[in-house]
């Protein structure tokens, strides 16, 4: 088994489409693909119908400035560069999905959806249609290739930057055409390399938060799309404690901003335990009620063959969360996971990603917890 980076095991020169966001990671990834001898074309995805001119610090991405940074990097690397308009597809598959999930009382991860629906579906499909062999991105993850040509998705060596969680939605066919040149390096190494390559983005800050909510005001974004709908804040017994202007503004595990009129009998803080869109209520209670040791995932995506029987693994439920020992089993198309230790504050709509060591087994959307 070999750690698949660049070039492919058979040494064939590939036609590679490098997705260039305008950041340092994708620029260095594209440069490495060229250095490995591949025929590389850079493309920047225009994901907003009305992109801002400038990024707000490290918030957001996909601005006009980012497009220009990507073009300048492509010029330095010496590859052709194009901007592809995918704003409508992004709105339908990522933004509309994001709003619909919150409306349904769930907490989605738009980065997973973007990787699944945009970068490794819409973009990859277009790339293959144009005769490209692979899509190259600056994600921190590794692809390991076996002698028989089968591939596995693994964690990055830089655990602080590891992005295998948001790539856990990729299936075998998508992994067969994916290229992640940065998985064997640290972020510091990549920035130093960018400086050596005279890439102006070497010191550009990483983007954070949700790219289409550049100001970081998720509640304001949702209010604009969903409006206000007054409802009750209740305890586990159904006793009304306060009111809210929209259940979508709350997340499981939230403590601050609950607008509760009087303290709990024991004087301890209360947390959001449940969000019900059916009766527009938010249920709050003690922190220990947030502990979850069982969950059910729907719409599984496997980075290889689906697991058979009961599988010992580790589970990760947040992009930057820790992994927990678990056992998982696929039953009637659902993934049932039992955690060795409780995890606090898991919300429906989040993804659970399963690992065998550093290998990603697959992922599922959390539909129920206990």
From TrEMBL:
It comes from the Bacteria. The active site is at residues 114, 211. One of its GO terms (biological process) is tRNA wobble position uridine thiolation. Residues 161-163 are annotated as: Interaction with tRNA. One of its GO terms (molecular function) is ATP binding. It catalyses: S-sulfanyl-L-cysteinyl-[protein] + uridine(34) in tRNA + AH2 + ATP = 2-thiouridine(34) in tRNA + L-cysteinyl-[protein] + A + AMP + diphosphate + H(+). The record marks 139, 350 as: Interaction with tRNA. The keyword Disulfide bond applies. HAMAP family: tRNA_thiouridyl_MnmA. This is tRNA-specific 2-thiouridylase MnmA.
């Amino acid at each position: 088994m070999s750690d698949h980076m660049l070039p492919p095991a058979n040494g064939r020169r590939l036609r590679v489409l490098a997705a260039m966001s305008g950041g340092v990671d994708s620029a260095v990834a594209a440069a490495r693909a060229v250095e490995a001898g591949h025929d590389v074309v850079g493309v920047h995805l225009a994901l907003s119908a009305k992109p801002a001119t400038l990024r707000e610090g490290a918030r957001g991405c996909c601005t006009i400035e980012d497009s220009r940074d990507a073009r300048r990097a492509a010029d330095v690397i010496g590859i052709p560069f194009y901007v592809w308009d995918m704003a409508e597809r992004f709105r339908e598959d990522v933004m509309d999905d994001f709003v619909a999930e919150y409306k349904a009382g769930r907490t989605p991860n738009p980065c997973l959806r973007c990787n699944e629906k945009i970068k490794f579906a819409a973009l990859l499909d277009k790339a293959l249609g144009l005769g490209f062999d692979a899509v190259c991105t600056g994600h921190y993850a590794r692809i390991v290739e076996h002698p028989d040509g089968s591939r596995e998705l693994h964690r990055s060596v830089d655990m602080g930057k590891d992005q295998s969680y948001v790539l856990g939605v990729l299936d075998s066919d998508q992994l067969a055409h994916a290229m992640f040149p940065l998985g064997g390096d640290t972020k510091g190494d990549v920035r130093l390399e960018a400086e050596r390559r005279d890439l102006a983005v070497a010191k550009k800050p990483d983007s954070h938060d949700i790219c289409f909510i550049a100001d970081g005001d998720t509640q304001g974004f949702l209010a604009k799309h969903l409006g206000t709908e007054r409802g009750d804040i209740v305890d586990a017994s159904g006793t009304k404690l306060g009111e809210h202007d929209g259940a979508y503004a709350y997340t499981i595990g939230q403590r601050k901003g609950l607008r509760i009129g009087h303290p709990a009998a024991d004087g301890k803080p209360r947390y959001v335990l449940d969000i019900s869109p059916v009766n527009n209520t938010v249920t709050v209670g003690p922190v220990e009620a947030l502990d979850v040791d069982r969950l059910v995932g729907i719409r599984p995506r496997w980075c290889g063959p689906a697991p058979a029987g009961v599988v010992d693994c580790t589970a990760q439920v947040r992009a930057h969360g820790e992994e927990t020992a678990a056992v998982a089993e696929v039953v009637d198309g659902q993934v049932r996971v039992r955690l060795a230790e409780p995890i606090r504050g898991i919300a429906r709509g989040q993804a659970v990603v399963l690992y065998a060591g550093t290998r990603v087994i697959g992922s599922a959307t959390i539909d129920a917890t206990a």
